[in-house]
């Protein structure tokens, strides 16, 4: 009948397996610093409203300072018997400062305590991810600027479609990661609301000052319903959802990097430090990092489904189910943080093989649309122009040459509107330069777009 903080009510101890099954200290101890931060704010408020004495508060602060240094030094002893991070710290506090430690939990429950800890932790993680997304976008825009006029084939259906600039291609990802940043910023506004004061579920009979605690902890407001405050984890689900989209974008970029690096394609090379060799095949240099990132997208998607499922069956208010929110949430943040850190470093280390990109764009009739547009500008209806060019492409396929290899006379066979100036639009440079509008692939637009992003990030 000893050990647990709640054990006075019980007539027999739980079995070892149940103890392990219900304990969370192995993973929630990483919330320790936020737990202490929350407790210190709570104690300061309890003193301000005269529920505890200035001496109690001083004792609590002294004890917490000691606990903090024990945790940092790695000498703090975490006990499974004490279930979770909250009870481990509280028990040690009582050991160190006695009755003041026992008064800390006045007007509070682990239910609002843990919800507060998670929000503090998550706010910190979101800020880190926002910074990392910035670094990745800066890297993408920098390489894009460098390659604003490097041409490669753009694909649809994995078939050569039209020439695009490599800078333009990279800036597509800068846009995606820009929206991901917006999502995190938006999510943060709902994370940064204080649950403390909800106590177990109904609030507390003590004259607490919740706005004061919110202010001390840097929250933008307080949860307005105590039942909601302790029970919902929608803010965490939103976060994991935003992370799943980040990983989805990372995964698409990874897939492209893997394809570009295949010797069959040969568009880029990655710095050696992001690749590994094969233990059997000496010639190999494998793009392990992008492949692994593509794979890790699956675990984040899994955490999203797990959290949604965790929530859906819970009646109000707090249920122990919610203890299961942490591992997936922690792993999501860890996975995305590591992935973004590596990608921000990997992108500037991409070696562009411009000759191979160019050669690939010259195959596959990438300028066929340009020829059709050329005819349209000379009065031919687009559908007729489309058909005339399709015939020309077939002819080229038979001959084994590109559209640009046909003479003016040969092209005129497909449509009489073809003039001497036709070859200007059949070149790759002419094709990309012509798409000179906001959002277009022209080098001038790419430079402008990259500069805009770099300026916004500086
Ligand atoms: N370890 C618990 C969690 O993660 C803390 C709250 C437990 N509250 C309770 N009444 N059992 O959610």
UniProtKB/TrEMBL annotation:
Q: Which family does it belong to?
A: Belongs to the lyase 1 family. Argininosuccinate lyase subfamily.
Q: Which residues form the Fumarate lyase N-terminal domain?
A: 9-302
- Please tell me where this protein is predominantly located: cytoplasm
Q: GO terms for molecular function, please?
A: argininosuccinate lyase activity
Q: Does the keyword Amino-acid biosynthesis apply?
A: yes
Localization of this protein: Cytoplasm
Domain Argininosuccinate lyase C-terminal intervals: 365-433
Organism whose genome encodes this protein = Zwartia hollandica
- What is this enzyme's catalytic activity, as reactions? 2-(N(omega)-L-arginino)succinate = fumarate + L-arginine
One GO term (biological process): L-arginine biosynthetic process via ornithine
Q: What is this protein called?
A: Argininosuccinate lyase
Q: Where is it found, in Gene Ontology cellular component terms?
A: cytosol
What pathway is this protein a component of?
Amino-acid biosynthesis; L-arginine biosynthesis; L-arginine from L-ornithine and carbamoyl phosphate: step 3/3
Key words of the record: Amino-acid biosynthesis, Arginine biosynthesis, Cytoplasm, Lyase
Write down a Pfam family by its short name. Answer: Lyase_1
* Its EC number(s): 4.3.2.1
The record's listing under InterPro entries reads: Arg_succ_lyase_C, Argininosuccinate_lyase, Fumarase/histidase_N, Fumarate_lyase_CS, Fumarate_lyase_fam, Fumarate_lyase_N, L-Aspartase-like
